[in-house]
Amino acid sequence: MTANDHNSHSPINPNTLPNFATMPNVATMDTTHVDKNQPPFILVDGSYYLFRTYHALPKTMQNSQGLVTNAIRGTLNALLKLMRRYHPTHMAVCFDTKSPTFRHAMSEEYKANRPKMDIELAEQIPYIHRLVTALGIPLLRIEGAEADDIIGTLAYRAVAEGHHVVISTGDKDMMQLINDCVILEDSFTGKMTDSAGVVEKFGINPEQMIDFLTLMGDSSDGIKGVPGIGKKTAKDLLNEYGNIDNMLKNVANIKGRAGKNLLEYADDIPMNAQLATIVTDLEVGQDWQDLKINTDPCAHINELRELYSELEFRNELASLDHPNHPANGNGHGTQSVAHSQADAESQAQIAKSLQSSTIGDITDSKIHDRAWHTILDESAFDNLVQLLASAPHFVIDTETTSVYWRQAELVGLSFAVQAHEAYYIPLTHALEGDELIAKQLDRDTVLARLKPILENPNIGKIGQHLKYDAHILSLYDINLLGNIHDKPNNWAMDTMLASYVINAAITRHGMDDLARHYLQTQTISFEDVAGKGAKQVSFDQVAIDIASDYACEDADITYQLFDLFSKKLADDTNNAKLLHELEIPTAEILCQMEANGILIRRPFLNELSKRFDEEIIALEKRAYEVAGEEFNLGSPKQLGEMLFDKLGVVGGKKTKTGQYSTGEAVLSKIDHPLVDITLEYRGLSKLKSTYTDALDNVADAKTDRVHTSYHQALTSTGRLSSTDPNLQNIPIRTATGRLIRQAFIAPEGRVILAADYSQIELRLMAHFSGDKNLTHAFNEGLDIHAATAAEVLGKEVAEVTATERRNAKAINFGLLYGMSAFGLAKQLQMSRSEAQDYIDMYFERYPGVKDYMINTRASAYEHGYIETILGRKLYTPDINHSNRMVKQGAERAAINAPLQGSAADLIKLAMIAVDKVLPKEQAKMLLQVHDELVFEVDADKVDEISQLITNAMQDVLTATAVEKGWNVNFAVPLLVETDSGQNWDEAH
DNA sequence: GCATCATCTTA
DNA sequence: GTAAGATGATGCG
Predict the structure, then answer these.
(1) Residue A710 above 50 pLDDT?
(2) Residue A829 Cβ < 7 Å to strand C
(3) Which of chain A's ends, N or C, has fewer CB atoms near its CB within 10 Å?
């Protein structure tokens, strides 16, 4: 029989039950004889790829005959990937058939609720079968057996015969087949799962998988499981009792619902277990040796050609003439994939999964031409100290117990003075049983020796996200900060900020992202060494040899990035200037601001929480009365159903997910008592949960100060963002909201001082557009929104009504946001054509602004980026996107980016300028909120310092920028407004 | 337990 | 119409 003779199997009688007692168990079988150096036996779960790719890939993939081809493509890509990766000699693709199996005979509910297969999918199946055969891969379908069972059987036989096995599937049920020599690989997502992967994912061993599935059940397959036992309980029970038999023996000891139900449903367990068990001794009537790939390049080439032509897979067709097409039995073919983006992502994931795998020819991607050292004795440390002290610059990286610097303790330090060589000094690792922990050098001794080097401004410090390391070192009384910006001309560099300045959009700026993007290297992830989720341990619980690899890699990669970015910056002096004169100095100031924190009034916040809570409860009660029943007022879904279905309110609109929209914009148009109650309820619960409760939780227990964390390499425009907590969105618009602001105070003898740029983005618009009317209004010091209304309506500023000013304000903001008539109409609640008329009138009066819009858009198309006032390039990758909506979104972002981005540049300059003149004993900079800086200052020095700050901020373009070599002739004045008071509300 | 949605807060 | 982050509810596995 030939390998592809897939119709030759005798059907399996669905009424003959497998003998579960004698069935071999793949997870526990002996694997000592398996030769891991041979290519693996590949078993593909064809049915999985069929369904997965059909639902995941767009149905718009069709040939000219209207045949949907997404599942064909998806499955083909999975197969080609496997062949390229493993160069297998033995492989089989298994499919389910429509006929019933023993599971259907056992349980009426088994897969009973599966909807009928879509016709668009059914049509693709014959093509997929033909394709598999034409690729020379054995195809297996057996009446009365599921693909799982064929795979289970073949996996057992293959391992028994000395092969290791890769099962290509995304079905978690198959995890019961995993052992030392059998792994799962989902070729669609790139995810690989070995034994450790099962433990990581579910907290149990592969051999416990059947019991796990039996307890949990599977609603999509119609397997019930034990009610009340989900993933978590099943895991806990299995960890305690090992298996279900043992659980039942000790069922009296199992408390609560789990124990009760286990007893009550004990009779169902055997059947559910059998439904969940993959058969491993099917009568397949075929020996595994027959499942060889047909490697004759000419065998099926004509069939393939015909298929690809009919399907209109042009790239695949062309690649048939390429000598390395995988169908020719050679695993190095060119990629021929329709979804380059999705594919690139899954490739990256595959690359990642390769790291941890040790099976077969899956390569360990660690490079070996490198020297990574663990420093565990005095003389090695002496040598390192010598090396660092005499280096012009070096990479430093701290390893700690937490990503939050305020909770972190130092665990070790890594260094690099050149690429491919790195040192790790473990200091406080404490993993029980790790023999190396006793050899660690003393932390304080090491730090004392390093302090003069780390504080030496003449030795450049290089790091990835140095602000973090600076925070950590400052906890140990080491001041790294001076080295970051006091010597802007040395080699000091923050690779995260360098990447951000060079191109903020091309990748995120974490070290893993940078290594992947710029060095084509997949780093050891933190999760690889410390686990993830609830099971993650802190770094001091990682074994020193593993930790050392991780830490050395970090330092090594950082050095390599430093080399690469240094070259890029040498070619672009403005980028170099942005890094050294703007971002790195800003980082140092942010470090101080974060360390300062801002004082809050805890008792006041607690009092507010209590008050809000009482009002919330009263509102809930009223809502239940109006509704006639209790429901969750905080659930948009339940509220929508109550309002529009049960209470019959008209005007309900649905969101894209099919539920009613209950956003503020919709509700405020409805006249109904429940709406008023809801809006008030939402306002108060927002304030309570997001602000009064949250701030109290994060404030330092001893000092009552709140320390936010600023992210400097995140936004697409150059703005900062603030997290944990976000102090850039503290309420201000409503009176109740402002109560929160009143909780931010200055200590005794000091006041809060706030300084903000007035209308900075509109001033930038005036500058960039050069528009005469706009420039004139700012130069005359007019109320800009009133001036706009007067100009557009052709009347005097004094005659402008409140509504006219409000509309003008909306259009001014709209301009900054790349406005459309549609958007303006929605904002002003007018018709689209009215909005369009208004916009037309505006552009007639402000032609320069119209030109700015056109020119900025054009620049984005021409260069792929726009520039801010300091020449920061902000890339606009979606400007040529094939989706019209996405493309238009990118156009609006491009129009906004120079304005928002330039404002971000200016406030960073302002922070640098202010920091330089601020008397540190009398004032501290605390917060930055995009166009505002918040300080606490000695009460008796407020006027003086306020003037100092105002001057520094207003003069950034005429003084600070010029000193640093940026010469900008700004078209309008920069105006700063300051105020001060006991709290942030009074200061605003 | 983790991701996504809907909502609301800021500049 | 731009740029963010946090929360509770909900859905998935």
Answers:
(1) yes
(2) no
(3) N
